Amino acid sequence: MIAHSKTSALMARGSEFLGSETAILCGAMSWVSERNLVSAISNAGGFGVIACGAMTPALLDAEIAATRALTDKPFGVNLITMHPQLFELIAVCGRHAVSHVVLAGGIPPKGSVEAIREHGAKVICFAPTLALGKKLLRSGADALVIEGMEAGGHIGPVSTSVLAQEILPSLAAEHLVFVAGGIGRGEAIAGYLEMGAAGVQLGTRFACASESIAHPAFKKAFFRASARDAIASVQVDPRLPVIPVRALRNKGTEEFTAKQIEVARRLDAGEVDMGEAQLAIEHFWAGALRRAVIDGDVESGSIMAGQSVGMVTSEEPVAQIIAALMAESEAALDHRAGARSIAA
Ligand SMILES: Cc1cc2nc3c(=O)[nH]c(=O)nc-3n(C[C@H](O)[C@H](O)[C@H](O)COP(=O)(O)O)c2cc1C
Questions:
Q1: Does the keyword Oxidoreductase apply (predicted)?
Q2: Do the domain assignments include residue 100?
Q3: In angstroms, rounded to a whole number, what is the distance separating the alpha carbons of residues 271 and 34?
Q4: CA 226 to chain CA centroid, nearest Å
Q5: Are 164 and 247 in a shared domain?
């Protein structure tokens, strides 16, 4: 990586922490981030992360073993904090001596960070605000990911650029903070590294790599889409909460809006109670990501994608994507160094 000396120097802390050549994580993507993509990312010098999603402990056990068979490089496992068997899943990671566990989907429940650390693994948590980031670090998180609303999948309300400005100046000098959301090219990586990030996490850019098992129809939808097609789901009625998800606009996203209006009407008419109404909304998307990724149902399935989707135009091997990101970052840093030397 001599050719990328400036980028590699800025990534050094992150790479050392991850045990990878570059501090580029491929964020866990349910159904997409399985053995093939995860091992390809780690083999290419990035850091792959298995998406556990709703897997049972037995399925996770098999997925970790299969990934290990495909790479001898480190990779992580992403666990959703509200999974009913979270502690069994942590034990599975422990049995396989997984080096890094990412806790996603909310504040980690009591004892979970400690349980992971007891197995000797490093814990990575998502920090939605500066105050929560500080709390997570105090509770034992080894590193943080800050993820803006440009990202694909479940999102918070704040953009990556604002989160980076709010959180990096306070925490990045002493702690490891990885930036995610909306990163499609290396110039953006250079910018966040210069702001103090230890590395970056991308999802959308890797989802349609050659090694990704996503259905050809899912990949085609990505290649055709532009940034404005990746929209956040909208909540229609304040009584019926919707956790925002960023996905490509399709028949399913339109039907979801219609469904909310219908359920709100039935609630007003007394045909359903509040619990039933909220469940109807919650269940609308059940299995929808799998339908899009695995079955190729891009009409009614959920094609989760971030706003960087417009920069994904063809199927490329993971190694080529990582090489391009590193080269773009290095060129940007060279350019800035050149500008600085002229100014001096
Ligand atoms: C198809 C898809 C599925 C995702 N599934 C998950 C998930 O299961 N768990 C999670 O923590 N993040 C999930 N994410 C978020 C990614 O891990 C990553 O943080 C995000 O994609 C980064 O932003 P970007 O999409 O702008 O690159 C998903 C993203 C996509 C595009």
A1: yes
A2: yes
A3: 42
A4: 19
A5: no
Phi, psi of 83, rounded to the nearest 5 degrees = -60, 130
Within a domain: residue 138? yes
pLDDT in tens, 132-172: 999 999 999 999 999 999 999 999 999 999 999 999 999 99
Are 35 and 219 in contact by the 8 Å Cβ rule? The answer is: no
Residue 325 and residue 204 in contact, taking contact as beta carbons nearer than 8 Å: no
Q: Is residue 160 part of a domain?
A: yes
Q: Is residue 221 part of a domain?
A: no
Secondary element (H or E) of residue 262: helix 251-268
- Residue with the two structure tokens 């000098």: 173
The residue ranges of the chain whose pLDDT is under 70 are: 1-2
Question: Is 12 in the same domain as 95?
Answer: yes
Q: Which domain holds residue 168?
A: 2-214+311-335
Pocket perturbation via mutation, ligand 1, pick of 24, 26, 29 by most ligand atoms within 8 A of CB: 29
Q: Using a 6 Å cutoff on CB, does residue 181 contact ligand 1?
A: yes
